[in-house]
Amino acid sequence: MTATGVRAQARIVARADGRGGTALPVLDGEGPLALRRTRAGGDEARVMVVGAMSGPLGGDRFSLDARVEEGARLHVGSAAATIALPGQAKGEAHYDVRLDVADGGELRWLPEQLISAGGSDLNVTTRAELAAGARLVLREEQVLGRVGEEPGRLTSRLTVRVAGRTVLDQELSCGPGAPGGWDGPAVLAGHRSVGQLVVVRPEFTKQSVAARMLGECAALVPLAGPAVLVSAVAPDALALRRLLDEALTRLA
Fold first, then answer.
1. Which has the closest alpha carbon to 161: 135, 138, 131, 119?
2. Helices (H), strands (E): how many in the chain?
3. How far, in Å, are 74, 143, 150, 167 from residue 175 at the CA level?
4. Which of 68, 96, 121, 180 gets the most CB atoms within 10 Å of its CB?
5. How far apart are alpha carbons 6 and 94 in whole angstroms?
6. How does pLDDT run across 71-129, given as a tens digit for each residue?
7. Model-level pTM?
């Protein structure tokens, strides 16, 4: 910890073990980013991110890198929601996630919600770099404020590249100080929870998925590549999770 906040890094490397399973030769976390391997499911390795400290707080800088090598399968979740909070250190907090999936690898990135508490200021960036034959399921959920609380400021950028080509690059900024209109009908329309589900599969190249609405508050859009995006808004975290789970079931 420094006078300007906590610095924390975590790294995961998943590698095929040659026996039909997935090994984790690198599983390193520090401070608030503790990593725990949990019981595997078939040939898939499972890792849980366990928040060992509060945060991210003002001035904190967290980074988490995950690499899935050829033929490996990795599922990453989190033990609880991440709560962005104001801290004694002034300034914006940063949480950077870097995902790298090799040809024939598969990553399921399914953390719990990120909650933007009142008075917080957090910038989140998630970048996924996939080889042409890689597979990805990525869920991102943000909740603006706790019950009865105004949200903090939250800026979130999500970038997905497949075979060197950018298929998704979007940014959303909400809360005090964000550009006007974030709570209007074109963005959140008064809802407090917003989420994305990105699914990348090589077979989408030949079997494209048609764009469609998924009820009143979610939409499925094919991307320019072997990928689809589901965007959803909801009044609360439970309703948002239900929408995204239903969308993933449809894509299964």
1. 131
2. 1, 18
3. 34, 11, 8, 27
4. 68
5. 10
6. 999 999 999 999 999 877 678 999 999 999 999 999 999 999 999 999 999 999 999 99
7. 0.94
